[in-house]
Design goal:
disordered C terminus; 8 helices; GTP Cyclohydrolase I, domain 2; GTP-CH-I_C/QueF; nucleotide-binding; Bifunctional folate synthesis protein; 288 residues
């Protein structure tokens, strides 16, 4: 991706753990790499089609002077996120906060922290089989819309599917959502768990009914293998109720382990299961 580089932007601010730093302040120097499309404005010569680096510099200065943090790690993290939220054309940012006057009682040249942050693309599966199912799915989508660290890009149509397991329960309503997010996979998991709790989700019966179920299906091209989080979702390739709505919005998204697109995974599954997603399938619902 193309890049706009800003070097040695001087900002006087009040960040630091020591009381003297909080009172007297000091100079910081900021280096920023703003990853964005330069080709389009390069061809049009139109300022509106690029990231205005003057405005970006003013934003960094304003953000760092109006906020106070103990750690330059926090300065870097929050300023990077602020830039990504403020300037939609910035897709990724690498930010270095230099602190040449850090309180170190030894000769040194500089102390700096560098972070690289971006908008990641994630796909979520949503499902409900209690109460007003459609309302619960819409509540999940609204919860994502209302979070400044998420941007909802596309929502699939909802499909009805039969439940799996020995527990007698109503049919499910399922869909998929594409989002851009500043969260890491673990942070996004915490977010979707909060949305589930707000919808009254409980986990008392394995494979039992639930007001709202949200699973992270894909997250960029990442492979995550943690005790409480597996990405790609370990059974997405077996589930029509995931693949059919996902195919509506992201047929060319690639499974990073199988190296197959969503449409190819759906083709592999459909000959074995004659179901169009209209209520005739009986695949296992999302993991508790």
């Amino acid at each position: 991706m193309d890049c706009i580089k800003i070097r040695q932007l001087e900002v006087f601010a009040y960040h630091g753990c020591n009381e003297e730093e909080k009172i007297n302040g000091q100079k910081f120097y900021v280096d920023a790499d703003l990853f964005t499309d330069v080709r389009t404005p390069g061809m049009s010569d139109d300022l509106e089609e690029t990231v205005n680096y003057s405005k970006a510099c003013k934003f960094i200065n304003k953000f760092m002077t109006e906020n106070r943090f103990d750690l330059i790690e926090a300065v870097a993290e929050q300023t990077a996120r602020g830039l990504l939220k403020e300037f939609p054309k910035i897709k990724e940012v690498e930010l270095t906060i230099n602190k040449p006057n850090a309180p170190i009682k030894l000769p040194f040249g500089n102390v700096a922290v560098t972070v690289r942050r971006k908008w990641s693309r994630a796909y979520l599966s949503i499902g409900s089989n209690m109460g007003d199912k459609e309302e619960y799915l819409n509540q999940a989508i609204e919860g994502l819309y209302d979070d400044e660290n998420c941007r909802v890009s596309i929502v699939s149509k909802f499909i009805e599917t039969e439940p799996y397991g020995p527990v007698e329960q109503d049919n499910f309503l399922n869909g998929c959502v594409e989002i851009e997010t500043l969260y890491s996979p673990k942070e996004l998991l915490r977010k979707v768990n909060i949305i589930e709790l707000e919808a009254g989700r409980t986990r008392e019966i394995h494979w039992g009914p639930r007001t709202l179920d949200i699973d992270i299906i894909l997250f960029d091209n990442e492979i995550v293998n943690l005790p409480d989080l597996k990405i790609p979702h370990i059974e997405m390739h077996k589930r029509l109720f995931v693949l059919e709505p996902l195919n509506q919005i992201a047929p060319y998204a690639v499974h990073p382990i199988f190296n197959k697109t969503v449409s190819q995974l759906l083709e592999d599954l459909q000959p074995q299961n004659k179901c169009s997603g209209c209520g005739g399938c009986s695949f296992r619902q999302q993991n508790d």
